[in-house]
Amino acid sequence: MSLFKRISISEVHQMMEQGAINIADIRDVNSFQMGHIEGAQHVTNDNLGNYIEQSDKSLPLVVVCYHGNSSQPAAQFLAGQGFDEVYSMDGGFEAWKLQYPSVS
Any bridge partners for residue 22, and if so which? Predict the structure, then answer.
């Protein structure tokens, strides 16, 4: 059973405009440094524990990867860590930067 929901890029953008959300970018460090969604935090195996501990779990959490595949198991895991509302972004950052190049 999925503990997370899938969400479109435009829905994520709309959520960002409406208020605070958490964005966890799970891509590699070089890809993250080359571009990421504004406000996203780079989450790796090395900082995962701190991320879980320090995040506001009452805010919606959107997990972002390259194409929307790897984010699904990550979102499932994070949903089991006490976050109230967890999403995997369909299309990943590659689709995001095509739709919102100025926000990347």
Answer: 61
Q: What is the pTM of this model?
A: 0.95
CATH number for position 78: 3.40.250.10
Active-site amino acid positions: 65
Place of tokens 């369909």: 90
pLDDT tens across 75-89, in order? 999 999 999 999 999
> Residue 30's Cα: distance from chain center in Å?
17
Q: Strands (DSSP E) along the chain, which ranges? A: 5-7, 22-25, 41-42, 61-64, 86-89
Token pair 């701190």: residue: 50
Q: Which domain holds residue 17?
A: 5-103
Please, which residues bridge with residue 89 across strands?
Answer: 7
